[in-house]
Amino acid sequence: MMTPMRYILLFLGTIxxxxxxxxxxxxxxxxxxxxxxxxxxxxxxxxxxxYKTPVPDGYYKPDAPMDLQDRKANASFVMLVRNSxxxxxxxxxxxxxxxxxxxxxYPYVFLNDxxxxxxxxxxxxxxxxxxxxxGVIPPDHWHQPxxxxxxxxxxxxxxxxxxxxxxxxxxRNMCRFNSGFFYRHELLQQYRYYWRVEPDIKLxxxxxxxxxxxxxxxNKVYAGFTISLYEYQATIPTLWxxxxxxxxxxxxxxxxxxxxxxxxxxxxxxxxxxxxxSNFEIADLDFWRGEAYSKFFEYLDEQGGFYYERWGDxxxxxxxxxxxxxxxxxHFFNDIGYRHEPFQHCPQGDLHAKGKCWxxxxxxxxxxWYSCLNRYDKIFS
Length: 381
Known about the structure:
The chain is of the alpha/beta class. It has a 5-stranded mixed β-sheet. Strands 5-11-12 form a 3-stranded antiparallel β-sheet. The protein has a two-stranded parallel sheet with strand order 6-10. The chain has 17 helices and 12 strands. Strand 2 (108-112), helix 5 and strand 3 form a beta-alpha-beta unit. 41% of the residues lie in helices and 12% in strands. It has helices spanning 4-25, 27-32, 35-43, 86-104, 118-125, 139-142, 150-162, 172-180, 211-218, 239-249, 260-263, 285-289, 291-303, 305-308, 313-324, 350-354, 373-378; strands at 75-80, 108-112, 132-136, 193-196, 202-203, 222-225, 228-230, 274-276, 281-284, 330-332, 338-340, 343-345. 34% of the residues are buried. The chain is globular, with a radius of gyration of 31 Å.
């Protein structure tokens, strides 16, 4: 004989069995009677906040297709950076893309003295639709050569630091690499022209024409500066003596109609310290690879001045371009607004409006007392 309690247990068992059968056979019933759904009736929904639901694609209006130019130069951007420079170089690259490269679609080459991390690569690749390559610098192109007297080099660094010479203790490997090795990297062998880009720069204006084609069509080899200024004498005390020694031994390599007047006020007897600021640089890789500059760099390298002093790539490039190219082959990009702390070039007048520039025209380094642009102007007068 069944007791009342057994009837109750039998009834509950039957109800639970029917519930499980319906849950498996009827999806909507299962959802409606799930524990989580019942709990939501008491505590409220636990769904994601609305902002986590992406805006539907239908709201987006993609950029209208841009008509790519009918021809391009054989050129690439070059960026020498470390993994730790990611934020700074992303800022620079985003400006390059927005102001110029979304329309012209030139590739990028990133160089580092150690492998780039996957995170670095992923962030960079997200900024562009064009080709990007990542390369590691060969150790013998980056590190101090074994023949350099380290005691002498160390003393030089210590002396410069003690005397508060700017960058006196740093960047020697980088300066030597940029002076004579970057254009030898295997990833750049396929290219003729390059545009050097540094972290944390500002590109103030739209660049609606192709500077690379200007170089190619007008036979420019160093169409590449926006700022020119004086070098610190304390970093290059014997550089000009080495230059004069090379010229005396190789007079046939000096180009007729060169830009010596930019470098010297006394026909080459002394150096006035003017140079093109090479953190912005658009140039012909074949010029650096050519006989004149190659012999010039090898001679300078043998003197050890990149380590015994602090010869920078800016004066080395500038002297090389001024001596081994015609002055007409060196170009000032007056219409490209650019800033690398602490100096900037801001286009003036109609150029400012044409480029939709956002820099203050009153903040312009062109003819400040420390600028060398007036000396560049004079070589054409």
